[in-house]
User: Which sequence fits this backbone?
């Protein structure tokens, strides 16, 4: 414990996902560094007394903002979220969990099998910015329809011809009779911010920065 406080340069604040696919892994990652992330009822802030670390329990989409604004020193989020926000926040380390791909897929019946088949079509997505960039790079004009979630349902309801969404096992796409034909990006969880979380110490300034 004495060594611990001697190494401490400042108390840090870490933003992690409150409830979702990143939560348990993020808690486990911090536990491996001696930081106890334990929810405090419904409060969105908890404190690990042993390490004087403050944990912010927030939506994953908001984590880049907390880090960018300096409210949090670091945070755990998927690179898919960073790409959609289009911000250059330093990536401290790749965390080897929450792997997934952002793909474009369409129902087999729609006969959309390549990017060029998307011309003039409607594409439903929660990732309009990244999708628009891909379409522009490939000189494709298509209508992007924003969905906050449950994107897979859009073609079945006649709301879109194709979708652009995250896929991990591919089971959800298969269940909706869709085939992915283009991968826009591959994602995994990363630690972002300006402070490392080394084993057995609270914080240490970054020596090298990786910018997305
Ligand atoms: O409430 P909050 O905004 O915090 O949560 P959220 O609903 O936005 O996110 P959540 O918990 O679903 O995902 C958090 C992060 O986990 C994502 O931003 C990705 O970085 C990562 N991740 C990894 C995934 C998946 N795998 C994943 N499979 N996020 C979502 N999915 C969804 C996908 O959208 C689709 O609906 O799972 C479905 C497909 O899964 P498969 O296995 O059937 O292919
Ligand atoms: Zn989210």
Assistant:
């Amino acid at each position: 414990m004495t060594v611990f406080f001697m190494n401490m340069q400042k108390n840090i604040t870490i933003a992690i996902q409150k409830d979702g696919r990143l939560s348990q892994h993020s808690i486990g990652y911090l536990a491996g560094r001696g930081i106890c992330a334990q929810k405090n009822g419904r409060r969105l802030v908890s404190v690990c007394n042993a390490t004087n670390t403050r944990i912010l329990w927030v939506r994953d989409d908001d984590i880049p903002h907390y880090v960018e604004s300096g409210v949090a020193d670091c945070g755990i989020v998927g690179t898919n979220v960073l790409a959609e926000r289009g911000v250059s926040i330093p990536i401290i380390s790749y965390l080897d969990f929450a792997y997934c791909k952002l793909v474009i897929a369409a129902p087999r019946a729609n006969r959309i099998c390549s990017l060029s088949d998307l011309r003039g079509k409607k594409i439903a997505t929660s990732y309009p910015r990244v999708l628009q960039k891909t379409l522009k790079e490939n000189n494709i004009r298509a209508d992007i329809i924003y969905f906050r979630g449950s994107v897979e349902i859009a073609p079945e309801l006649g709301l879109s011809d194709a979708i652009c969404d995250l896929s991990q096992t591919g089971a959800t796409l298969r269940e909706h009779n869709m085939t992915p034909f283009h991968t826009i990006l591959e994602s995994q969880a990363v630690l972002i911010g300006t402070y490392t979380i080394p084993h057995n110490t609270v914080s240490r300034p970054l020596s090298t920065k990786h910018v997305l």
